UniProtKB/TrEMBL annotation:
Domain of life: Bacteria
Species in which this protein is naturally found: Streptomyces olivaceiscleroticus
Name of the protein in its database record: Glycosyltransferase
Region of interest (Disordered), ranges: 1-51
Length: 397
């Protein structure tokens, strides 16, 4: 496996050798020390800001940056981004790199080890409560997150903004319009777990907070998205056109080859791994693809199997693909299965001459554990994509 040309590998995790080692490895500490030596003012993670944003993935943070760029929300340090860090090493690495970019833009980033042990949730919530009480606007990247749903019960903010979390945003808007409970599209039906029952009151409260009150100025709910969504009345949608990404990166150098974009459909239990491998192999053979850009959640075992079966070069990006593609080099054709990138890459790569094509998922590839909604949802992701070429099932793609 290799890193993309011109891209750095994932940022190493902080060591476990004690507090001094952790502080030395923490980019916040190193950056603050450099500012102090240069006589620059330090950024305070607890700075009172008009806007507080919560993110748990690199894509969510990218879309917070896009929203802030459009709304000029970061002036005078008025935006504080709180990273509720996950366990997954690849996700953490990309989040570290995105946090660096956010700080370079002048925004305050607060990194929370929100899942670092049994006491971490209470410590995180306790530390964030004063910020939540003072914030006038809350920006969230994942309304399905139990963590975020819990935090929403602690804020008095009048303005709520949901920024893109990719295809999940489509399902969120759909469920909000129908007045349904917030459940991720790939989760199968059936009885709820004890944990679901414990968090049910917080989920219900979050859904109420995210539902606008007609003819009331008590709170507003907005959406910032590049996805095709039809919100309920009273929820304005602002289009995310990736203006910050295009201004910050590129235009890219194009290769003569074809690249494939990986998905986590196997990891989420939607698609059978053997069918997925066969589909990627067919795509590579039919279109002469040479590189496979792995999704951050794809397992090492699966990627090794793909490399052995297809001969593709496996690339594990250190940033969201929209930025990697914009920075380049990137193939003149990008192939993908139904995913967020079939909506975002045409925007990020507008005017570059790159062609994006999407290959449908054959219903026969779905596992027995896949949600009954899976096939319809994936077809909707493909069918609503603009400025892409639509391919048939990978057996004949």
């Amino acid at each position: 496996m290799s890193a993309a040309d011109g891209a750095r590998g994932p940022v190493p995790e902080a060591g476990r050798g004690g507090p001094a080692q952790e502080a030395a490895a923490d980019p916040d500490s190193r950056r603050a020390a450099r500012r102090t030596r240069r006589g620059e003012p330090r950024q305070h993670s607890d700075a009172t800001g008009a806007t507080l944003a919560f993110v748990e993935s690199p894509v969510q943070l990218l879309n917070v940056l896009e929203w802030a760029h459009l709304h000029q929300a970061a002036q005078a340090g008025r935006l504080t981004v709180v990273v509720l860090s996950p366990h997954d090493p690849m996700t953490r690495g990309q989040l570290r790199r995105m946090a660096e970019l956010a700080r370079d833009e002048g925004w305050t980033v607060r990194w929370e080890e929100a899942r670092g042990g049994a006491a971490a949730p209470l410590r995180t919530i306790g530390g964030l409560t004063p910020l939540l009480r003072r914030a006038r606007r809350i920006v969230i990247g994942d309304p399905f997150s139990r963590y975020v749903q819990l935090l929403l019960t602690l804020t008095r903010a009048r303005d709520l903004v949901v920024v893109d979390d990719g295809t999940a945003t489509m399902e969120f808007i759909s469920q909000l319009a129908r007045g349904e409970q917030l459940v991720r599209w790939h989760r199968s039906g059936g009885s709820r777990s004890p944990r679901d029952l414990v968090f049910a009151p917080f989920s219900a409260a979050a859904r109420r907070r995210l539902t606008p009150v007609p003819d009331s100025d008590r709170r507003t709910v907005g959406v910032f998205s590049s996805m095709p969504v039809e919100p309920p009345p009273g929820v304005p949608v602002t289009a995310n056109e990736f203006a910050w990404t295009r201004a910050r990166f590129g235009p890219p150098r194009l290769t003569r080859g074809t690249d494939i974009v990986g998905t986590s459909l196997v990891e989420t239990g939607v698609v059978d791994p053997d069918h997925y491998l066969a589909a990627v192999r067919a795509l590579a053979r039919t279109h002469g693809a040479t590189r496979y850009f792995a999704h951050r959640r794809e397992s090492a075992e699966k990627l090794h199997a793909l490399a052995a079966a297809t001969g593709l070069e496996i690339v594990r990006p250190d940033l969201p693909l929209e930025l990697i593609a914009r920075r380049g080099p990137i193939g003149r054709t990008i192939l993908s299965f139904p995913s967020t990138v079939v909506h975002t890459l045409p925007l990020a790569l507008a005017g570059t001459g790159v062609k994006v094509a999407v290959c449908d998922v054959d219903p026969a590839w779905l596992t027995t554990k896949a949600s009954p909604r899976a096939q319809g949802f994936l077809s909707g992701v493909t069918g609503t994509a603009r400025d892409v070429q639509r391919l048939t099932f990978a057996g004949s793609c």
